[in-house]
Amino acid sequence: MVGEEGAFVLGWDEVLTEEELSMTLKVLCMSEEEFKEYKEQDGWEDDSDEEENSTLSNEALSRLKTPCKKLLYDSVLLTLESYGADLKAEQDLLNNKEAYGKLSRREQQALHVRYGQKRILHQLLELVQ
Questions:
Q1: Residue 8 falls inside a structural domain
Q2: Can you give the pLDDT at residue 2?
Q3: For the residues of 27-72, what is the DSSP string, one character each?
Q4: Residue 38: its pLDDT value, please?
Q5: Are the CB atoms for 21 and 56 separated by under 8 Å?
Q6: For a surface tag, which of 8, 33, 38, 61 has the fewest beta carbons within 10 Å of its beta carbon?
């Protein structure tokens, strides 16, 4: 369901891998009985019109059912824990011209990428609280 890399791609305004995330949330939030029924009905391709036409915009993420929001929230926390430093530490480094200047160009670029990723993840936390 998630693909080879096992990750979802999030943007500032929406989930870019919305089909994969929608299906994953749907399956992971099912009860065992619902999952058996879904699987028996070969429901993998037969989603409702509402689900097919909806995008996982930030607004839609904030309206998810509680179990899905909790699953996303916990997943984001685990992802944030995998980083070596928190968002504030990255921001402090970006704002400290002397320390930032000592970084190689590659380290500066990596810092910007990590900082952007963490900001998106923190935004997602707020949306699914």
A1: no
A2: 55
A3: HHTS-HHHHHHHHHTTTTS---HHHHH---BHHHHHTS-HHHHHHH
A4: 84
A5: yes
A6: 33
Other beta carbons within 10 angstroms of residue 25's beta carbon come to 22
* Number of compact structural domains in the chain: 1
Domain extent at residue 72: 18-128
CATH number at residue 91: 3.90.1420.10
Dihedrals phi, psi of 53, to nearest 5 degrees: -90, -10
Residue type, 119: R
Q: CB 118: neighbour CB atoms within 10 A?
A: 20
pLDDT per residue over 42-90, tens digit each?
765 555 544 444 568 888 888 899 999 999 999 999 999 999 889 999 9
Tokens of 6: 């096992």
